[in-house]
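User: Hey, quick favor. My workstation is busy. Could you predict this chain's structure for me?
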Amino acid sequence: MINIIKKVGWFIKQEWKSYTFMLFMLLFMSLLLLTPAFVLGKAIDIIVSSSLTVALLVIIVGLLILIPLMRYATSFIYNYTVAKTSQKLAFTFRKIYLKKLFQMDAEFYEKYQKGDLISRATGDLDLITSAATSMLEGIVFNTGIIVFAIGIMAFTISWKLTLIAITIMPIGITVLNFIRMKKRQYVKKHRIIYAKMTEKILESVEGQRVIRAYVQEDNDLKDQYKAIDADINSWSYMIKYENQLTPLFELVYGITYILSFAFGAYFIMNQEMSLGQLITFISYVGILYGPFISISGVFQQINNATVAIDRFD
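Assistant: No problem, here it is.
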């Protein structure tokens, strides 16, 4: 991640206004995502205490309608800004890359195959662009939700129940980092396999006359299948690591829900928290699931982008 920031730091400085705007928008979106559960919990407590009035009902319903509309507007503005910034970065990188290619001598083109160069300009560049723009959303937005949610759970509901519920989460994060490091080692190999496949396809397309002249269509087709199968097998190997993440988080959250319900019921019986607070707490636990899954995806994106930016250099 640090390597990516160093390599695209010049662009972030150049577009600091856009990045600052996106940062504040993400934090605001994080708060908006958590607000409905808080309002719903307060509404339940008001109903249970038989203190619901027409004015309070109008306020509650109004908030529950207004918040999604605000989220939609905020999300639209943010996504528009991200797309605009991403396209600008992609254009700039491709311009720099092509300019660099035209400056290279014959020795450079003997060292690197066409497929390798094309894969850098397409796949690697897309990964870098995505990391430089979407990574902000993945880190700031999801981290913001996690921090805000845990803060609200601890300071407005029950710090005891919060501590009990989130104790198991660091275990999932530790296993995630272990899987991430193993995957990074293989991503480099995968990019080489992908480049070889691209090179083989280009050779087949460019050399059709020679292939037909020597009646080598079948052999060439076998070589293409071999290169494509190698790429497919490489993807399958990477997906194997990715598929280990979702069951892990489902297990962690299953245990978290059990702990939340069990100890939450105990705290209600001891009048340490209300029913509305427990429902709000469970809602926040459910909200935390998405950000943790998204962060695992961000880590995968960072892995791929780190390898890509090293190749792009």
